[in-house]
Structures are given as C-alpha cells and as structure tokens.
Amino acid sequence: MQPLPKELLIAASEGRAGAFERIYRATADYVYSIALRITGDSADAEEVAQDVFLKVHRCLGGFRFEAAFTTWLYRITVNRAVSASRKRSRRRARLVPFDDAIGVEDPRDQTREAIEREGDRARVRTMLEALNPDQRACIVLREMEGMRYDEIAAALRLKINTVRSRIRRAREALVALAKEGGAER
Question: What is the pLDDT of residues 68-87, one digit of tens each?
Fold first, then answer.
C-alpha cells in the first residue's frame, strides 16, 4: 500500500468528506484483506473493516503523525480483527453452525481447479484458526502481508522479541498441524 499524502490526512481530519473517501478507497481492500486473514470469515472481516473506518473517522483528528498512517491503520485493523476472532471463537464454542448441523452441501457445479483452490484456501483458514488470535495476527502480517518484524512490532505495539516469539510459535504450530493432518477437513 502506498503512503498517503499528509495533506490528504489533514484534510480528512478537518472533516472534508472527499478526502476521507479517498483514504477509504486507497485502504479499504487492504484493511479487509488483513481482517479476513485474521478472522477467517468474510462477514466478520466486513464488520471489522466497518469498525476500523468508523474509528479512523472518529480519531483521525487526534493522529499526531509520530508514526506512519499505515502503521496506525494496521494496529487498529489487527486489534479489531483479533477481538472479532475471539468473539467468534466464544460463539462457536456455544453453537453448531447450521449448515454443518443439517449437512448442507454447496449445490453449485464447480470445476476441479476451482474446488482445489477453495480446498487450499479452506486448509489455510483452518490452520490459521487453530492458532491463538495473537499468533494469527503476527503470522498474517508477516507471511501474508509481507511486513517486517519491526513494522509488526510498531503496528501491534509489541516488543520485537514478542513478535518473533509469536511468529516462531505460530510456525511451529502450523508445521505440527500439517504433519498430523490437522489441516484436512
């Protein structure tokens, strides 16, 4: 994601709707992508993205430019996504998904390639969901978003050694899951 001009951020913080819309358009896909990878659910990711932009809109006037805007945006997104993921885990523990309970299958006729691609995505989602939300946030930002350790530490307001530890533990857990076939559904 390209850095946004300071003038645009200032204009949006002064209440100019067009400026905020430009910020939204430039960052919405990225925010959704991070949220989806952390929550593993498109509905939750959409809700997280909405929450993120509400918070950005409310708090942009207090942004002091001490860190990059993208770092601030990452931090908000990851925090909201981790919270949503925790809520979802608590809900899931209490409820059985309706489709699973009645054995509904997707009736659409899909090509073999599309099915394999979706299967790969499902395995990745399943494996990511097996991680705790803090590990998931770090591994998503590192492996899927390509952030450096220092960027992750800044975005999550963590010490760099905490980031390294969470990523190492997440990788170990993912390797163990893959070895035991835990990623298969």
Answer: 888 899 889 999 998 888 88
Give the list of residues 6+ apart from residue 72 with CB closer than 8 angstroms, or none: 63
> What's this model's pTM, rounded to 2 decimal places?
0.57
Q: Do 9 and 60 touch, CB atoms closer than 8 A?
A: yes
Q: How many Cβ atoms sit within 10 Å of the Cβ of residue 184?
A: 11
Q: Is 61 exposed, middle or buried (0-12, 13-18, 19+ CB in 10 A)?
A: exposed
Angle at 130 between CA 97 and CA 148, to 5 degrees: 130
Residue type, 5: P
Q: What's the rounded Cα separation, in Å, for the pair 136 and 48?
A: 16
Name the residue with higher pLDDT: 35 or 91.
35
Per-residue tokens: 33: 């992508």
